[in-house]
Amino acid sequence: MAADTLIIVPTYNEAHNISRLIERVMKLENQVDILVIDDGSPDGTADFVRKAQKEYSSRVALIERSGKLGLGTAYVKGFEYALDKGYDYVCEMDADFSHDPDDAERLINEVKSGKADVAVGSRYANGISIINWPLSRLILSYCANIYARTITGLPIFDTTAGFKCIHRKVLESISIERIKSNGYAFQIELHFRAWKAGFKLKEVSIVFREREEGVSKMSKAIVREAIWRVWALKFRSIFGAL
């Protein structure tokens, strides 16, 4: 029976994690497929995905790109793939186990049940549910979400969440090709466009853990983009230019 759900996982230097992640995802109760979009990882991440393809056949897909082209463009590429292949439910997930694969079940079920069009794995829906972050990063993230929520009016606490399940009708309606943001800003823009299009966003509380292997992709450029992008979204919405 063909899976109706696709989990998209962008990667860059995730060789230590990707095989274990694929194995965990393949064991979920909801049968899902996984698409890895690798930005030319020099550590051989794509080689491990190809090995997994031999074991899991058509359930594991791989798109290889020439270099670090950004999180936003990776997800847009993945969304286009999902729509083209006919998936009804599309998930975002990190490769580093900061997102528990078992929580993907809860997000998928929220959308399949019709309770949400976008189910957001939230770090802030039930207090603060983050493990092993330094205080400075926690403060930055928490304040960034207050800032984004205040300016955009988004009805969720974790506006920058990168763990979610989306119904295909959302992606078909929000002109995904027009999303040019990356990093935090990409997630804010995706949520904002879905909300403004009239879709229901629902937060599902998760426990977010600092990555187990590798190096964080956070940068000052990502933070700066999020700061100005929320204003651009706000004004474009006001003038009907989303």
How would you describe the oligomerization state of the chains in this entry? single chain
Number of DSSP-assigned strands:
9
Give the helix level as a range of percent.
40-55%
Radius of gyration: 17 Å
Overall mean confidence score, pLDDT:
93
Fraction in beta strands: 15-25%
- Structural class, please? alpha/beta
Q: How would you spell out the order of helices and strands?
A: EHEHEHEHEEHEHHEEH
Terminal Cα span:
38 Å
What composes the largest sheet?
7 strands, mixed
Q: Strands of the largest sheet, in order across it?
A: 3-2-1-4-7-5-8
Unreliable stretches? none
Structure notes:
Helix 1 (18-26) packs parallel to helix 2, helix 5 packs parallel to helix 8 (220-238) and helix 7 (183-196) packs parallel to helix 8. The protein is globular. The model has no long low-confidence stretch (mean pLDDT 93). It has 242 residues and is α/β, with parallel strands linked by helices. The protein is 43% helix and 17% strand. It has a seven-stranded mixed β-sheet, sandwiched between helices. A two-stranded parallel ribbon has the order 6-9. The chain has helices at 18-26, 45-56, 71-85, 101-112, 135-152, 168-173, 183-196, 220-238, and strands at 5-11, 32-38, 60-64, 89-92, 118-122, 130-131, 164-167, 201-205, 208-209. The chain contains eight helices and nine strands. The N and C termini lie far apart (38 Å).
